[in-house]
Please model this.
Amino acid sequence: MPSTVSASAIEALPMPIWPAEIYPLEPVQGWFQRAAKRNYALSADAFVDSLGLSGRDWDYDEMLKVVHQLPIDGLDALEASTPKRCDNIYEICGHKLSLRFITKSSRRVCPMCLDERRYVRTWFDVVPVASCPHHDVALIDGLPSDPLDWRHPEIGWTKSGTKIGAEHAKMQIASELDHYIVRSFIADDVGLPDHLKDLSLNTVLTASVCVGKLFRGDEKHTPTHENVRSLCQIGFDSLVGGGDTITDFLSGAAWLQRDSDKGRYKVRCNDVPNMLQAIEDDGLRSLITDAFARARVRNGLATPSGRLSKYDGEDDRRNLKSAARSLDVTSHTLGVLIRKLGIDSYRCQYTRAFRLSREQIHLVQNYINNSLCPDDVSRLLGCTTYDVHSLVKRRLLNMDFQMRGVFRYNQSDINHFSTLLLSYDADRCVNGSQPLREFLMSRGVPLAEACSRILRDKSLLVVEHDPLLPLFAGLKVAEAEVVA
Ligand SMILES: [Zn+2]
Model:
């Protein structure tokens, strides 16, 4: 007992004997329990009652008021370690935590910690903590069918009268989350990566719960302590990893598989933005939103259109539009080519949008590479590109598709055209034949018109051709005799 307190002052103090020492991370409720024992109280509740407080409620703020009347060193530390209620949060060790992360009702202990020194550590009551990070031992709320008796004047006794100690420890490796929470009660820098560095403990815990919920996909989460704890533990590791890790993690969620039951899929997805509103930090919220979207795109459950278009390709498929862009053709042309090649493209189950695989895009690319431009065709046929264009306009020659406003041709159409033009009767004897070029010059007839006369009204006949020359350069023609 400190010597500075006079005898009369002591009589005015609320309790005759008190623990003068405050232990590390000890909250006021734990200190009161030790005080109950020091004062030989029958129960902790009765002791609290005897001080004019409610032994039923254990109002920590009221308890702090009592302690403040005692001459104890280290009261600041005790106050800091005590969860102080303030509107809808608890303030504890300089952190503001929402009510669901602190429990007053389902309290637990680490048997090993108690074995070392019998007192309450404030993080015993932090809901998301699963294991003691000092001992890698599970926090327990008692023994099987024998819960802890918190009315007992000493901490760690069960209702049936067993004193919890090292022999009751159940090994359970502490998670990164357990270490993080306890560390954040002691140190300022807990070594989180940049995307979480400046965020509050509450935000990180809330975001962990959200990632856990996204993974589970069950939209009806009863906020029991066990649920909050397991969601938080599930989500934390990938949250620390960042966007890519969260995406990988969520891609593996059972409800986000292509072949999983989609009964509540839409309802769950619609619920997500609302659920994520709980995360106060915009940056972190959109990191998780994006990871969820990417995971769905990757698993083929969402078409990467609009806001999601930046994830096109995540599932090794591309939208028509972005595939067209990569091929340097319009979506319309790509549609034409897909039909031409008989590509059976995948259509998104939900949006019905075309989705092209890498191989299919490659197939189209090859087709484009092998197509002929007007210069190629003019060289092959031995005419000008203007002539080629005129042949297409007269529908004598097929063009294949358009690219950047220019017609492209395929070899088989050119072959077909040549074959038709050369299917003349070689034995037919016709007088007055001349090379096609000469004929065109002398009559002032355009090439396309001459071809039309050969192919359509047969008033011009091909009588000879030189296979070593380009088609039109090696042709000889004669005018058909008009039958009287
Ligand atoms: Zn421990």
Observations:
- Residues 110, 112-113, 132, 134-135, 137 surround zinc ion (CB under 6 Å).
- DSSP finds 21 helices and 15 strands in the chain.
